[in-house]
Specification:
By secondary structure, the chain is mainly alpha-helical. It has helices spanning 2-74, 84-92, 102-110, 118-140, 147-159, 182-235; strands at 163-165, 171-174.
Length: 236
Amino acid sequence: NWRKYTFEFISIFIAVISAFALNNWNDNRRDSNAETKILIEMSNGLNKDLSDIDNNIGGHVNGITACGYWRDIINDKNYDPDSLNLKYFSLLRGYYPVQNKSGFETLRSKGLELIENDSLRFKILEIYDYYYHILRNQEENSYEMQFEEQYSNEINKMLSKSLLFDANGNIVNLEEPIDLTKDEKNLFLTYLLNIEVNRNTMINYYKQVKNKIEILRDNINDEIERELTRNIKHSN
């Protein structure tokens, strides 16, 4: 009976090994599908982040334009009174990054090793744990970027006696010439210079992060394409 028992042993051995192999294949396929879904979610989030960055860059550009507008007023140059209300609010307005991190948080909860591509995993961590952190900290916590907090009281004191409002409370014009002492004028011009420099610094950092995000998004999309192609081949 040794032949019979040997055959049965080999059959059982093959069945067990096959079961382990099938289970391992299912686990790998499940991880691959989870990775693909997370990468798709991250890609969509990064596209939204890029749109938000463009909006914030545009807002800071408007703030810089407002600096030039008020500089002309302070220096007794011609200005467009129709833009007065808009330029008043654009001068000190702050902007905050809206970061779509749900895909990254899902990845973190499932384990970063789910991303098999080491280079891609590093770039993901670089964006979400480094660049995004600095970007948010600069806009929300950096004292230099808190224009409203720093300058609004002093600027309003300087302008309040010259601003003209309509019945709805909108600024429509200025009494000219603006009644500023030499010290007030120089102080106002200093404020405008500081705002301009800090907005330009923020714009440059936004552009740097935007470039990093675009590279990461393209790398993620390439990885998604490879995963989908690999899954199709395995299915066939």
